[in-house]
Specification:
This protein is an alpha/beta fold. A nine-stranded mixed sheet has the order 2-1-11-10-12-13-14-15-16, with helices on both faces. The protein has a five-stranded parallel sheet with strand order 4-3-5-6-7, sandwiched between helices. A four-stranded antiparallel sheet has the order 17-18-19-20. The chain has three domains: 53-223, Rossmann fold (3-Layer(aba) Sandwich), CATH 3.40.50; 279-449, ANL, N-terminal domain (Rossmann fold), CATH 3.40.50; 453-552, ANL, C-terminal domain (GMP Synthetase, Chain A, domain 3, 2-Layer Sandwich). It is built from 18 helices and 25 strands. It comes from Nocardiopsis codii. Residues 32-414 form the AMP-dependent synthetase/ligase domain. This is AMP-binding protein. Residues 465-540 form the AMP-binding enzyme C-terminal domain. InterPro entries: AMP-bd_C, AMP-bd_C_sf, AMP-binding_CS, AMP-dep_synth/lig_dom, ATP-dep_AMP-bd_enzyme.
Length: 553
Amino acid sequence: MTQDWLRWPEEQAREYRARGFWDGRTLDALLREGADLHGERTALVAGGDRLTYAGLDARVDRLAAGLSSLGVARGERVLLQLPNRGEYVVTLFALLRAGAVPVLALPSLGAAEVESLVRTSEACALVVAQGRGRSDPRTPAARIARAVPSVRHLVVVGDPGDTGGVRWEELALSAPLPGEGRGAAAPEGGAPRTAGVAGAASEDLALLLLSGGTTGAPKLIPRTHADYGYNARASAAACGVDGDAVYMAVLPVAHNFTMVSPGIVGTLAAGGTVVLSPDPSPTTAFALIGAERVTITSLVPALVPSWLDEAGRTGHDLSSLRVLQVGGSRLDDTTARRVGPALDCRLQQVFGMAEGLNNYTAPDDPDDVVCTTQGRPLSPADEVAVVDEDGRPVPPGSPGELLTRGPYTLRGYYRARELDALRFTPDGFYRTGDLVTRSARGDLVVVGRVKDQVNRAGEKIAAVEVEEYLLALPGVRAAAVVGVADPDLGERSVALLVCDGERPDREEVRAAVLGRGAAAFKVPDEVRAVAELPLTGVGKVDKRRLRRELEGA
């Protein structure tokens, strides 16, 4: 069942198998093995649910049987759009166990984006949750189900209302399991086990992720059982996650960061406990850290300042927290240095992409490395190159675009061949679009995006570099630099600042930028105060929206 867009060259595939990166297991087998090894250990805490490994495995079996009874067949795609709740984890593994392919959609996606994903994937079903008011996903999901010919079923966690959908809870409880009543082995609750999908191969398509890009319709990223399982297991090892770890998912559960860095899959593969936080606020999260003795969690940079501020006044016990991971975009050095003192834990910077490559700072890295770099590649088989505009390697310390290939980096987008020609080199390296520098020992520092630049009078200004200078100013909580069309300069640079008090004026900004040794052309042409910066669904600053608003002002 291996499709063209999943194919690594056979020589590389043989190497990845021989070196044990691809170990022949499917993702649902990782959970099954966890039930065998750690049956009564707590696997998942979500709201009022506390499931052991055996209990979670039994629920997955039951729902997999229910999905099969609907006619969901091996290889069919199912769009999964659920918030941070236990049903997400159960449904994810049940789809995998039934041989279906989950399409992981963030709850923040709009109806047009969801419909685009459903049409591209030719999904046979959608799984959504009951909501409230205008944010209720049931209504657009029902419309999409009627409009897209491939969709046969709508499954709703909660009340389906007048959508004509199937209630998730009934589907998860009513379907008989294969062998039921005929002496099949029964884990917790007496439910017989399914045998999994006959003939499922670890190198088959396992799931489809959303690209983290902010332009155009969302693209789908194919991941196999082999590469995604390796990604999760290797990440758990790199992050020191084992059976004693308690990982809290704060970011959306469909985010690749929350899935395998090491996330939900990596933690369950290691025998640890996963705790789902319903929202990312420090008030909610700190209560869970204290109650569940959370040891590791993950944030995007935009959330870090509020966590650090709240840590100074919270009454919750945060002493169990050992590691705060920060990734998704560049964390400025100033905020990075606040993490350890404020939370009394270790910062781990994470730089990666749903397309594959993950980079981590190591637990034993010196503070200066942890606070100023975004880590090193996860796998010894990760190949990286940093190149200039003509594709030539640049020397250590010089900025260039990051190219990569390896045992868990895609070789092509799903049903988007026209994009592959732009995003991959002829020899299979993925063009990440990230501008980085690399030290002699391999530490990467993200300095921007290839397109996240201001082209001011012919001078290329990396927005991330100037944002770093601005965030060092007193009272500046967040900063974004964007280029706006200008008749004389081509583009002028505009700095948008979220401040605690009065914003610094342009002369103060000028002094700060020049004081860091930067060229004068990097001083923003305009400085504005804003109440907040808009974010994309994956927690990155939505610069496309900012630029549109500025040019329309």
